[in-house]
Amino acid sequence: MKIRTGFSIRTKLLLVGMLLLLIPWMSYQYVREMKTYLLTGQEQALSLTSRAVATVLHDRPELFNEESQIDPSNLDDNEIYAAPLPNYINLNGDLSDWGEAAKQAEQFLPTPGEQPIASDNVIEVKHTLGYRGNFIYALFEVLDDHVLLRPKKFLRVDAADHIRLTLQDPGSSPKRYTLIAREPGRMSIYLMDQAWQYPISGEPNYDLAAELSLTDDGYNVELRIPRFMLSSDTRISMMVVDVDDPESRTIAATVPTTPQSENDELSKLLVESPRITKILKGLDRAETRIWVFNKDKRVRTVVGNLVTEVNDPEIDKPSNETGLDYVWQMVRYYYSSALQTIFTYIIEQPSSELADRSIEERNDKILQDALSGSISSDRRPSLDKQSTILMSAHPIFLGDGILGAVVVEQSTNQVLRQQRETLENVISVTLLVLITVATALLIFASRLTVRIRRLRNATETAIDRDGRIVHQRLNAEAKSGDEIGDLSRSVSNMLGRLSQYTSYLRGLPDTLAHEVSNPLNVVNSSLHNLSEEIPESANSKYMERAKNGLNRIGMILRNLTEAANLEQAMQSETRETVDLIELIENYVDGYSFSNPEQRFEVLIHSRPIMVEIAPDYIAQALDKLVDNAIDFAAPDTAIVFKLRRLDNFAQIDIINQGSRLPEGMAERIFEPLVSLGRKDAQKISLGMGLYIVKLIASFHGGDVIARNLLSSDGVIFSLSLPIHDPQSQSYAYQN
Amino acid sequence: MARKVAIVEDDFDQRENYRDALEKSGYLVDTYANRREALSGMRSNMPDLAILDIMLENEMDGGFDLCRDLRALSPTLPIIFLTARDTDIDRVSGLRLDAWDYLTKPLNMQYLSVRINSLFRIVDSLALGPETNQRNNAMVINDLEINEDSMSIRWKGKELSLTLTEFWLIESMARHPGHVKTYENMMTITRQSYVERNTINGYIRRIRNKFKEIDPNFKHIQTVFGVGYKWNTDG
Asked: DNA-binding region spans which residues (chain B) (predicted)?
């Protein structure tokens, strides 16, 4: 009877352990909260910064005067000047929006580079530089006799006409960009290697934008550089590169459009008011960019740089490690890439709603607000979509009027980085804790399971199949100090009390018989003495009936005590090894001899079958079975004996035709005092007979079962006894 | 001169019934209700035969203890035990008490007289001495020697110590070697009130054990399953 519903303790504990997974979830929530909090803090700090900057600039209109504009004639050798442009420039090849600025374009000729310029090569560049709003614009009108565009499937990007742009912040390596086109229209812009031959990554740069359009005698390029790529200290150089031979595709000429200093220094680009810049320099903060606009939304100055990349520590796939190192590296690699995957899901990306804004609009709104006198802040995704840029704007007052506005921008990537690190730590720690706890739980649960199972097995074997108590004490877990030990001890207690009670119950018939036998003896001897004293009473029918009654009571007592006596008697019984077939044949012969009216059939499947038994008791068991069979057999039917070997058991089937066993009786029939009733009221049926058969079978290490015949009405009793194995030790009691 | 029988039985009704029955049979009867009384009574007034109930008042084995005490007083006193359980017989053997016979309750008064008679016959024949026994009524079957007078049996020259019932059973089987004595026959032979097959099996087992003490290879008593037992001359 095994009813196992649901999970084992082990599974349950592990499921409980799964609750640990709440830790990363909670930390994620916490980190999100923290992020919000940090961002709020950052926004407040930004708005303070913008206010501070604005405060510095209040009531200083001279800073915004046109006179303070840079005079292009006073430029140093390595300074170039971007003129303010009247309009925003549309990058479309139409030069009309450049207005006057296009007419003031400077002319540049090729400079002798590594290779001499062919005399028949026509190459000449007109170049203009200007700014509007948050952008620097450059125009290149190129006169070229062979316009050569980039061939398809050509990896190198220096094998066609192109433009080179170099930006360098002090203290960091220069960034080289190549502008190149396969066809008129938007150009591809790549960050280049040192030799200007290959892009560092295949990804084009989208912060920069350039448009190429063909003309009758060459081509035009409009280039737009966002101001945030240039701090006040950023150096710049630009150069048009001419390639004419479609076969060799070698560089025919280079035309720099920025001053070429002797020591290869790049030029400084001046766009803003140097005085404001000087003031703001003191406020320059890492990863912060400060804009100052005049009330026409013209940029007066911009300082600082945004760092928008979230740098992930890149772990490469291991290649040259061996053994454990290799495994460790692999684990680390996969672990971190798994973490990356997780992060892309759980860390909020800048919302796309922000990303849809055009570049011009990015801080236009808050600038507008600031210029109309209110303080505001906003968020936008960075151009590379890696993080969010927080912006805060503050008006600059002149008396009651407005002089301009300060816009402070800062990327959130510091917060993001902190968020990532925290999460990463939490996840790693949680994983470690989870694994540790799970292992501990597993070990603990296994131990618990093993202990409980041991206790269960001990409990199950403490009582045999017939419900008799074999062990009164469980040894399993008896000495443990915990609840399982308690359980074991209470089961032992229970067994002890139960066995006391069962031994009382088992002794009850015996005690009863013993007690009854004395009064019975009184009646018996009194009757005897009565018949001696009054001789005529001896022949009275009542005397006869009284004696009959006494006999019946006597038989009942015998029956009651038989089982108990048998159990005690069997202990001292020695066994013999006999052929069961021969025994049964003799038995049937004998039985037929004493009951000639009863027919028997004996079916023997194999012979001999050697068993080690106490023959008297087996005969007694057979007596009970046969008596039983005869009682229930239909008239004039034979009792059938079937003998066969089943594995290590000899099986004796005793079959009678007749009534079937009632539902559920097949199991109970062997219990003491369970009787099916008899046809003959004079016959005593205490239901002890089959119980005795069971006792005898168990004593021999065998069993007896009853079931209804499948094919016809009738019952089959099967007595099985272990086959005698001459190799094995006799397991008879050694007294 | 009438023989004197002592009855030790704690139940008044039974005790008095035994007394009546035995007095009718011509014996003098002393009755005792418990071990203490019995021992002091018999010390001064030794009977010719004692019938002891095993359970005496609150002593489970009062009869056994009393038997030991009486044996100390008289090694030859014939003792009959009254038992309520078959298994007590095994216990008597186990305790090696020199009981001459035992009877299970409820008693059949006729059989009680018969048994007492037989025991006194044995006492008498023993008093005559062994040499007379050798000549009279000795029945010899192979190694088996049955003396009807002294109700003794020898196997291969060695005497078995048997109870009356055991003697009667061996004798009935050996009288017709090779003939099956059915359980029904044997039940009558035991001269007891209620006898089960198991009781018979128990007797045969004890008998075999007694033979085997003398001769470990003893196999002359053969079981005929489902019927009974027979004496095999070529066991």
From this structure: 136-233
Q: Indicate yes or no: CB of B193 within 8 angstroms of CB of A590.
A: no
Which of A587, A557, A629 shows the shortest CA–CA distance to B195? A557
Chain B positions in Cβ-Cβ contact with residue A588 (cut-off 8 Å) = 226
A611: pLDDT strictly greater than 80: yes
CA distance B56 to A86: 137
Would you tell me which residues 25-54 of chain B have a C-beta closer than 8 angstroms to some C-beta of chain A? Answer: none
Q: Please report residues of B whose CB lies closer than 8 A to that of A569.
A: 86-87, 90, 198, 202
Per-residue pLDDT at A271: 65
Under 8 Å between Cβ of A430 and A27:
yes
Considering only CA atoms, which of A424, A390, A420 is closest in space to residue A407?
A390
Number of residues assigned to chain B = 235
pLDDT in tens, A302-330: 676 665 555 555 555 656 666 778 888 88
User: Which of these, A686, A663, A667, lies nearest to A467 by C-alpha position?
Assistant: A667
- B232 or A558, greater pLDDT: B232
Q: What is the DSSP letter of A96?
A: G
Q: What is the predicted pLDDT for the residue at A75?
A: 56
Contact assignment for A529 to B20 by CB distance below 8 Å = yes
Residues of B in contact with A530 (CB under 8 A): none
Residue A302, phi-psi category: left (phi > 0), alpha (psi -120 to 50), beta (remainder): beta
Residue type, A605: H
**CB A450: neighbour CB atoms within 10 A?**
10
Residue among B105, B107, B226 minimizing CB distance to A619: B226
Output the pLDDT for position A135: 82
Q: What angle do CA A180, A181, A185 make, to 5 degrees?
A: 130
Nearest-angstrom CA–CA distance, A82 and A68: 15
Distance CA(A219)–CA(A163), nearest Å, equals 12
A619 touches chain B (CB under 8 A): yes
CB A522 within 8 A of CB B53: no
Rounded Cα distance, B220 and B235, in Å:
4
Side chain identity at residue A209, one-letter code: A
Query: Do A14 and A444 touch, CB atoms closer than 8 A?
Result: no
* Chain A (514-543) residues lying within 8 Å, Cβ to Cβ, of chain B: 514, 517-518, 520-526, 528-529, 532
Assign A512 to helix, strand or coil. Answer: helix
Q: Which residue has the tokens 């704690």?
A: B10
Q: Does B128 touch chain A (CB under 8 A)?
A: no
The pLDDT, as a whole number, for residue A284 is 62
- Token pair listed for A699: 């004593």
Which amino acid, one-letter code, is at B158? K
DSSP 8-state assignment for residue A320: S
The pLDDT-based confidence of A334 (bands split at 50, 70, 90) is: confident
HSE, side-chain direction, 13 A CA sphere, residue A607: 13
Amino acid identity of A226? P
**Which B-chain residues 170-199 have CB contacts (< 8 A) with chain A?**
180, 182, 193-194, 196-198
Contact A588 B226 (CB under 8 A): yes
Beta strands in A329-387 (DSSP E): 376-381
